[in-house]
Amino acid sequence: MSGQAQSSKVAWYLVQCKPRQDARALEHLARQGFECFWPCLTVESLKGGRLRQLEQPLFPGYLFIHLGMDDNWVSLRSTRGVSRIVGFSGSPCPVDDQIIDHLRVRCSQREGAPLLRPGEAVRITSGPLADMDAIFLAMDGEQRVLLLLNLLNRQQRVPVPLLDIQPLPGPKRADIPIC
Questions:
Q1: d(Cα 62, Cα 71) in Å, to the nearest integer?
Q2: Do residues 165 and 131 touch, judged by C-beta distance below 8 A?
């Protein structure tokens, strides 16, 4: 009796996708009726001088699938975009339901970290103020930012095109107080 209950147990498993084919694998697995979960976050990206919101997978190249031992595992190998089920010693490794629940909550409640946060140090890359470090204050429209710049021993608020700045590596907050 316990062997039969064990064989019908349903669990989450990790699917490794072929390179850059996560969405294709998800689509084809869903068409076959499998329950899948592809954890993604919305992140900001600076592209072409504009901040854009992009959906990015939390684990690029992987997705989760909900399977029971009675399901057709053979069809997974021939599914477009799927490379393999992650496992050890030739047997698939189940993922704890609590991990999936935690990922679902994280993906539904939070967006990814914004590219620029008030107080963050940035470098001006071009224009008359090129190679100067400043503090990001806020967005000033879609294509400009407002920076706090130390000029002549005074802090000045200066609008700069978004395309002309880049975040500085290191600590996320600057040591200069924002007035």
A1: 20
A2: no
The arithmetic mean of pLDDT across residues 22-47, rounded, is: 88
Domain total of the chain = 2
pTM to 2 decimal places: 0.58
Mean pLDDT computed over 82-94 = 92
Burial of 16 (0-12, 13-18, 19+ CB in 10 A): middle
Where b means 16+ CB within 10 Å and e means fewer, 44-54 reads eeeeeeebeee
Cα dihedral 77→18→64→114 (10° resolution):
-170
Instruction: Band the pLDDT of 87: cuts 50, 70, 90.
Output: very high
Alpha-carbon distances, residue 63 vs 38, 46, 70, 72, 81 (angstroms): 5, 26, 20, 18, 11
Is residue 28 pLDDT above 90, yes or no?
yes
Burial (CB count <10 Å: 0-12, 13-18, 19+), residue 147: buried
Residues 144/162, Cβ–Cβ less than 8 Å: yes
112-147 pLDDT tens trace: 455 677 888 889 988 888 899 999 888 877 678 889
Domain boundary among 109, 132, 153: 109
Q: How far apart are CA 15 and CA 12, in angstroms?
A: 10
Same domain, 46 and 90: yes
Residue 14 is part of a domain; what is its CATH number? 3.30.70.940
